[in-house]
Amino acid sequence: MTGPLRVAVAAIANDRGEYLIARRPEHVHQGGLWEFPGGKIEPGETLEAALHRELREELDITPLDYRPLITLSYQYPDRRVCLEVMRVDRFEGEPRGMEGQPLRWMPSGLLHTLEFPAANRAIIQALTLPDRLLITPDLRCPETLLKGLEKTLLAGGIQLLQLRAPRLSQGDFASLAASAVPLCRSHGVRVVLNGEPELAMSMGADGVHLNGYRLASLERRPEGAGSHALVGASVHDLRDARKAARIGADYVVISPVASTPTHPGAPTLGWYRFAEIARQVGRPAYALGGMKLDDIPMALRHGGQGIASIRGLWRGEMPGALAGRGDRTQGG
Prior knowledge:
Layout: E1 5-12, E2 18-23, E3 34-35, E4 38-40, H1 47-59, E5 62-75, E6 80-92, E7 103-107, H2 121-128, E8 132-135, H3 142-155, E9 160-163, H4 170-186, E10 190-193, H5 197-202, E11 207-210, H6 212-217, E12 230-235, H7 238-246, E13 251-254, H8 270-281, E14 285-288, H9 296-301, E15 306-309
Parallel strand pairs: 1-6, 8-9, 8-15, 9-10, 10-11, 11-12, 12-13, 13-14, 14-15
Antiparallel strand pairs: 1-4, 2-3, 2-7, 5-6
């Protein structure tokens, strides 16, 4: 049995936050659809060598500054492909279609309006998700949480937030969400609820985050979570990650990556294992557990989307157990 077709793919960004896409010829596989530039990795060729060769042949440019974005496998009816995607932030030359292919620069927020091969969905998701995910602390008082949330949002830098309050009743959590969702929306922040999927959708949230229990109970993407809703999942190993991918999660939060003061000596995954899970899950992956803003470059270098954090991103009051300490593996 032959292995998947390995493909080097480039998500090329310009200084306006747009990405370069090309249209496939009508006569080839997935013809007529838009795609990110790239091509087959030849036998014995490294990913980096293939990236340079393909961009020179297709666009007449040389990549100068690039890093792993996401790796994903996809089974089409007639073939299986493994896309090894690199984000290119700086290049030499002026892109032009060397094979006559039409090119277009598109803002990340509009990529979903065009027709891409199905395997490209996760790439587009990775380009639209931020490099940090704020998880709210486990505060007993909704008023205190809302006050801290407003302070955190006013400080800026947050684009995606997971609202969680595991010690609140379902009714109190719904009341909290009724205030928190529009507050986040007013600051241009997307919010996912760590709760029942039905509640998240009824509250007008941008999506739902599945803890370990909810992930284990599902066999398909939550009902009501359409293609534009975000579905995230907490995972702790490759089995969890594969389950998240199987039900159609849009991103995963992998923990615990590093040790935390609240759980000294507890087993951790480390960056090598994080990278291994991130590579195989084929979804944008956030690193959780002891994360700070300074850890974002490390997460990116290991193929992650960025970090998820409570203490490292929250600007409001903290629960007593977390005050002055690092994150626990929250959200799981």
